[in-house]
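**Paired protein data**
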Amino acid sequence: MARERPVFIPELVYFEPDALNYPKGQKIYEWAERQGLPIHMTTSHNRITNLPGESDLEKYRIAKKTLVVGIRKTLKFDQSKPSAEYALPIATGCMAHCHYCYLQTTLGAKPYVRIYVNIDEILEQARQYIEERSPEITRFEAACTSDPVGLEHIGGSLKECIEFMGQQPLGRLRFVTKFHHVEPLLDAKHNKHTRIRFSVNANYVIKQFEPGTSNFYERIAAAQKVASAGYPLGFIIAPIIWHDGWEDGYAELITNLKEALPQEAAADLTFELIQHRFTKTAKNVIRQRYPKTKLEMDEEKRKYKWGRWGQGKYVYADEQAQVLKAFITEQINEHFPDARIEYFT
């Protein structure tokens, strides 16, 4: 039996001065004091340049264990297609070490974890977006730049967002996680306006490329809990990786989900399918940070696909992608005939 994944406890904590003017900032400060953590003040997260570590790799690993508590100054929300209309910015950075993660490049040289304490201002902005799009429903994705479940025991922001959206007739919340620490969310007044999704994958992918996360069985046990608490449930199979034995791996994944989930959870179940992709920049960063990775990033085997802002990425060739999509779709349809596959990308 694998040892249970503990909650994230940072090794260093930095506070931006204005963060302590907010109740959440005070709450996190008191939490850090109780934990006996080294607490530092910084004028801005951009000024944190003196993290310990002799090599770039060591500094990176220490940064992933560093928490910065501050204020979200930009209240303009990014788009979050195809998952939702907007990204809800409550945290940035992640304590996990998934080799393939796009945060490797989007966070650049600042991979530390940040929690924003001005949650009331962020939610007020969300309310304005909802009003602007009325009478359409507006969906918000809370896990675009972080895994907020892994931080809930520190900041408590997810529960606040869930209960806020529960009161919005035209607002919906979505987030995805690789962590199983969902207990603080189980008694939230969600009104079925929040869909909690779990990132799952073939056993090979989780073992090789997702260190620092809850294991598959912990995630599924957490999925059972949120389903029992009445939340709409979903799974994101991402990244789908072509590897030796991938058919058996993904067939086993769907079978395990079928065996583990209560029947009532399958009545309103969603799947999102995302094939592995990488950029040239990401490839270089990943190989620096995880020099022993087995992640396949051979441009010669891939198709180049243009993305937003004129930046391209390497995805599987069309024929290969279609084989992956067809096989996994067939498995889902066979085991979860009532489930909805929202997209394959």
User: Anything to note?
Assistant: The chain has one domain: 12-344. The longest helix spans residues 318-335. The chain has a mean pLDDT of 94. The chain has eleven helices and 15 strands.
